[in-house]
Design a protein that fits this description.
Shape: globular
Distance between the termini: 11 Å
Order of helices and strands: HHHEEEEHHEHEHHHEEEHHHHH
Number of helices: 14
Largest sheet: 9 strands, mixed
Structural class: alpha+beta
Strand order of the largest sheet: 1-7-8-9-6-5-2-3-4
Radius of gyration: 24 Å
Number of strands: 9
Length: about 400
């Protein structure tokens, strides 16, 4: 049977009927966010004291913490004295499927190293890790979160590999946050800690070599700066529960705040970056000193079509204005290369290099099966459920 469109359409109508109420709540919250930004945006000492108080009341609070730039600051691209080497890395994976005849996992990472305007052919590096049988569980790869964790480490490691013999200025970036998280489906704290320690060690070595590291988050959904504005409206610690359960700016995101524009006001014009903020979270126990996590927003869009993205950087990059300006300039130029759908060109190339296609996964499975049989090891059949799904003409899931 196909989807019951009558039932779905009835629910769609119900959603449509609530649009007016949702729009009113959103507009009211957005107006309040703009008011708070205007009122408190330059009161940096007050804002930092609010963050400190909130941190004492809730060690897990996650929000922005201002440095020395007002919240509504806007900085255009600055001339940079050097043309850096660029390294972008991205990863993909094929996760073990219990319905398949053979249990295996593949993590594939691709990286592009390019020296703009040099005439040199970009260097392409691909690293593929295959995990079979017990190695899947031993490496914490039984869940999506475990695989993503290992992939994030591999992305940053391949940047280290490509950058080890480079003496010039280097800017590197990956897709997603610089901070890596322990997903809820990761059962083993020790496995998570092991990967995290290795990841932080790689970041430290990149810092020692002066290789700028950044995480590029396209279409961010977080509200780190909005959460900071909310702190101004509560008494701490008495009302921290209220902030968790009924946030006053629930319908506002940072992306809206930094993308807001009309004929009279635009917080971030095209190509401009925001103030730099520190990320206040419990991750500060891991990312310490020069690796303390910071971020800024960057409008890579055009007039009339803003597109704010979040860029995460370590403290040592945030503290060095020359390196900060260099990263800013590189990302704007990279995004403009992609035209009306701005995204760093080199990250796009790295993704194309890394992606594991379904036919590639099937070929690996066949090669594994041949090798196992050649060595007299039993190879199981795929599940009958999967066989039924694979029947010609069957499209139902």
């Amino acid at each position: 049977m196909p989807i019951n469109y009558q039932e779905v359409y009835t629910q769609i109508q119900s959603i449509g009927a609530g649009a007016k109420e949702r729009r009113k709540k959103k507009e009211d919250a957005q107006a309040e966010a703009r008011r708070l930004l205007a009122q408190f945006g330059s009161q940096l000492d007050f804002l930092r004291s609010k963050v400190d108080s909130a941190k004492q009341a809730d060690a897990n609070i996650r929000c922005a913490c201002p440095l020395d730039e007002p919240l509504a600051s806007s900085f255009d691209v600055q001339p940079v004295p050097v043309s850096p080497t660029l390294i972008a890395a991205d990863g993909s994976q094929a996760i073990a499927d219990r319905h398949s005849p053979i249990q295996f996992c593949v993590i594939n990472v691709g990286a592009i190293c390019m020296k703009p305007n040099s005439g040199e052919t970009p260097a392409v590096e691909v690293e593929s890790e295959l995990f079979y049988g017990d190695a899947i569980e031993e490496n914490g790869l039984t869940t999506d979160g475990g695989v993503a964790l290992r992939r994030d480490l591999a992305e940053r490691s391949i940047i280290e590999t490509l950058g080890k013999d480079l003496n010039e200025s280097v800017v590197s970036f990956t897709d997603g946050t610089l901070e890596i998280f322990r997903a809820k489906d990761i059962d083993s704290p020790s496995a998570y800690r092991s990967v995290l320690d290795k990841y932080v060690s790689v970041l430290s070595r990149l810092q020692e070599r002066g290789i700028i590291s950044a995480g590029y988050i396209d279409k961010p959904s977080s509200s780190l700066v909005v959460k900071l504005l909310e702190l101004t409206q509560i008494t701490i610690p008495e009302e921290m529960e209220k902030l968790r359960n009924a946030p006053p700016l629930k319908y506002v995101t940072d992306r809206w705040l930094f993308g807001y524009n009309n004929k009279l006001f635009q917080l971030l014009p095209p190509g401009h970056r925001s103030a730099v903020f520190k990320i206040q979270s419990n991750s500060e126990k891991t990312y310490k000193g020069a690796l303390e996590l910071h971020f800024f927003y960057l409008n890579v869009g055009t007039d009339g079509h803003p597109w704010p993205v979040r860029v995460e950087i370590p403290k040592w990059v945030a503290d060095d204005k020359e390196k900060l300006n260099l990263l800013h300039s590189v990302l704007v130029e990279q995004c403009r290369m992609m035209g009306s759908k701005p995204y760093p060109y080199l990250l796009h190339r790295a993704h194309e290099t890394a992606v594991v296609k379904n036919e590639e996964k099937q070929q690996i499975e066949q090669l594994l099966a041949m090798e196992l049989r050649k060595n007299n090891e039993d190879v199981d059949d795929g599940s009958y459920k999967q066989s039924a799904k694979d029947l010609q003409g069957r499209t139902r899931r």
